Amino acid sequence: MDLEPLSRRRFIRQLTTVTALGALGTSLFGCDDKPGTQAGAPAVISQRSDQVVPFRYPDNPTFDLVYVADSLGYFEGTRARPQYVGKVAAPQIIPLVGTGELDLGTRMVPLVISAIASGLDLKVVAAGGKTLQEAPHMKYFVRDDSGIRTPKDLEGKTVGFNSFGACAEFVTKKYLRQQGVDVDRIKWVVVPDVQAEQTLATGNIDLAIIHPPTSGSAEHNPALRKLWSDFDLDEGLGGMAPYSAHGRFLRDHPEAARDVVQALAKAANWVNGHPDDARKITAERLGMKLELVERFAYVDDLVITEPPIQYYIDILEHEGKLKPGAVQVKDVYTNAFNPFVRGTV
Predict the structure, then answer these.
(1) Which of 91, 191, 298, 340 sits in a 20 to 30 Å window from 160, CA-based?
(2) Are residues 248 and 206 in the same domain?
(3) Are the C-beta atoms of residues 5 and 117 closer than 8 Å to each other?
(4) Among residues of the chain, what percentage have pLDDT more than 70?
């Protein structure tokens, strides 16, 4: 079940799943909340403005720079505030950003490329997460007694991952093909990260691809064995998890957009410099045991570079999901709202 390039009509159809939930729920932090600043956090942005622009954002049970920036007070004194709209299923985030139901969202690069190819109005505005050997974007687990040790062992097996059309599908298939594996002999099924460890342990899938922070629990499960991380597959080239914004928000509120990106970049740098404190925020937010929470790593200053985007354009074209030349790298991103980029201050 591979995704074709997502059409505008199909993206809009996906919205019904979320809108049927009503008002999209309530926020974790209200717009008037003033959470305390964490120890070691850089100074709060000091600029003032009479107009504060809310940006609509999911309030999902995950680790996210928007929540971190909010908890550190980085939106205080700026022209932007998160307006949390409740939980939004991960596959719905980019469709909702692309149609303007959300102003900002974070999901992997291939989903953004497909959205742009379908005519939706959004841009990557901040680089987001990155893969390090010690902090990968995703990990690959098998049961310890499975006998699966090499890529070829996966032929005839079932692989569970969080969604089609994103990193887990494309990074994995690219790597397996390079290793001579017939990926058509593998059964690919969608299993949410929060269910993947149990689904694997009970034998309903043979390999689980799990993202942090959920992968930490699987790492500590003695019945499971880590096979690889995405760093082992492509040294992190496919691991950039960026933030994308709707075009109307960028055009109508450029100063607020700049403040959002600056707050996120400051939060990203804080996380990189205080990984253990960031893990504590994750544990508290998600109700996880601290020892099971894995660290996150982010691109310095969230400055976007082109190779991770070109990587996915090439994959999508090779997979037949994108017509050659339909989307160029510069169609996908802009650093214009990042004050850490030279020339934009």
Answers:
(1) 298
(2) no
(3) yes
(4) 85
Q: What percent of the chain has pLDDT over 90?
A: 80
Tokens, residue 196: 């993947």
What total number of domains does the chain contain? 2
Does the pLDDT of residue 245 top 80, yes or no?
yes
Residues 59 and 170 occupy one common structural domain = no
For residue 206, is pLDDT > 80? yes
Domain containing 159: what range? 139-234
In a domain, 204, yes or no: yes
Note the pLDDT tens digit of each residue in 286-309.
Answer: 999 999 999 999 999 999 999 999
Put simply, whether the predicted model's pTM sits higher than 0.85 gets the answer no
CATH number of 65's domain: 3.40.190.10
Contact present, 312 and 234 (Cβ < 8 Å): no
In a domain, 41, yes or no: yes
Q: At residue 15, does pLDDT exceed 50?
A: no
SS3 letters across 186-211: CEEEECCHHHHHHHHHCCCCCEEEEC
